Amino acid sequence: MLAIEPVTGPEVLTGSTRLKAGTAQKMVLNMISTGSMIGIGKVYQNLMVDVRQSNEKLVVRSQNIVMTATGCEREEAKEVLEQADGHVKTAVIMILSDCGASEAREKLLKAGGNVRQALK
After folding, report:
1. Neighbouring C-beta atoms of residue 66, cutoff 10 Å
2. How far is residue 50's CA from residue 37's CA, in Å, rounded to a whole number?
3. CA-to-CA dists, residue 63 to 25, 82, 112, angstroms
4. DSSP letters of 49-113?
5. Tens digits of per-residue pLDDT, 21-49?
6. Which residues, in sequence order, are bridge partners of residue 20?
């Protein structure tokens, strides 16, 4: 088997063999996982829209994502997220398509969970 090793140059700490190589490996794995998330529809624009609101930090993050994706204010994001049962993708579609939660869910279902496709 042919192994491809990135050329990362000499280590900052002489004798260490993993600092730069580990960083290079992590970067490659991050690129692969990010590409996968985009491919399966967990991303809209540059936002991770597949968020489960399991704590207060994620509730606020969900509001921020809806606000960024749609240009709405926090109060509208809160209201629409409540109508969407906390589902960020549904909330984004509701605002951008000017529709209710059930119609947004239907659009999302037909689009295989992909927000961009649901908005077409």
Report:
1. 28
2. 10
3. 33, 10, 23
4. ------SHHHHHHHHHHHHHHH---HHHHHHHHHHTTT-HHHHHHHHHHT--HHHHHHHHHHTTT
5. 777 778 888 888 888 877 777 888 889 88
6. none
> Helix or strand or coil: residue 48?
strand
Report residue 97 as tokens.
Answer: 């398509």
Q: Is 69 left (phi over 0), alpha (psi -120 to 50) or beta?
A: alpha
Query: pTM higher than 0.70 for the full model?
Result: yes
Longest dimension (CA), the chain: 61
* Residue carrying the six token digits 């280590």: 11
Using CA atoms, how far apart are residues 2 and 24, in angstroms rounded to an integer?
18
Q: Could you tell me which of 79, 78, 73, 114 has the C-alpha nearest to residue 93? A: 114
State the pLDDT confidence band at 19, using cuts at 50, 70 and 90: confident
